[in-house]
Amino acid sequence: MKSNLYRLCYTHVGQDFSICNYWNDPHHRDLYLNNSNFLALLNDERLHPNASAWKKNFLRIRKMVLIGGPDDGVIMPWESSLFAFYDDNETVREMKSQPVYLTDAFGLKTLDARSDLVFCIMPGVSHTYWHSNRTVYDTCVDKWLT
């Protein structure tokens, strides 16, 4: 199924499904860039009229806490919750190797340079429990609330 999901996701109809809004198939990059109406725009990987305003607003973030873990079971690769992603060979490349970071497309590199990115890696938490896991809250969230 995963190998054919792009056939649905990169269509007008597919963009109405939440999973398709986040689908970034490393084997069909052109389709993703040309047809993704959410993630490709949010990551400033495709030109759109709101890019400058979105980057300005993103840079207003005082502290961005990125939470993920190897036992998520849904997010693939799980490291994409930390802005890592696959290369053409499906090898996971860290955030600092990603084009959106290197070009500072939407301000991620700037946030990192300001030390305003926090990475919280939590093994043992599956996807449907992130929001209700007390250890995740105590370790990754509580100290950043103002």
Keywords:
single chain; 146 residues; alpha+beta; 2 domains; 10% strand; globular
Please outline the helices and strands.
Elements: H1 5-9, H2 18-21, H3 29-35, H4 39-42, H5 51-58, E1 64-68, E2 85-86, E3 92-93, H6 99-102, H7 108-113, E4 117-121, H8 134-141
Parallel strand pairs: 1-4
Antiparallel strand pairs: 2-3
Description:
With 146 residues, this protein is α+β, with helices and mostly antiparallel strands. The chain folds into two domains: 42 residues, no CATH class; 93 residues, no CATH class. It is built from eight helices and four strands; from the N terminus they run αααααβββααβα. The strands form two sheets. It has a two-stranded parallel ribbon. Strands 2-3 form a two-stranded antiparallel ribbon. The chain is globular.
Task: Label the structural class.
Answer: alpha+beta
Total number of β-strand segments? 4
Task: Report Rg.
Answer: 16 Å
Secondary-structure element order, as H and E? Answer: HHHHHEEEHHEH
User: Outline, from the CA principal axes?
Assistant: globular
Strand adjacency order, main sheet: 1-4
Q: What is the count of helical runs?
A: 8
Q: Please state roughly what percent of the residues sit in beta strands, choosing from under 5%, 5-15%, 15-25%, 25-35%, 35-45% or over 45%.
A: 5-15%
**Biggest sheet, in brief?**
2 strands, parallel
Distance separating the two termini: 43 Å
**Amount of helix:** 25-40%
Number of separate structural domains: 2
Low-confidence stretches: none
Q: What is the average per-residue confidence, as pLDDT, rounded to a whole number?
A: 96
